[in-house]
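Sample entry follows:

_____
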Amino acid sequence: MFDAFTSEEDRQAHLAGNMAKALMSRVEEMLAKPPSVEPVDVLAIKNQPA
């Protein structure tokens, strides 16, 4: 899964949101091991965001 956000605030809101909570509540039945959440820096973009 890959998610991109325009700000750190947006990323934190997503990680603390209802969907993340729902997924993490079932992570053991859906995945073989806990997910790794790793921030990366985008170095280039081909299309401008809307």
About this structure: Residues 3 and 11 are 9 Å apart (CA to CA). The chain has a mean pLDDT of 86.
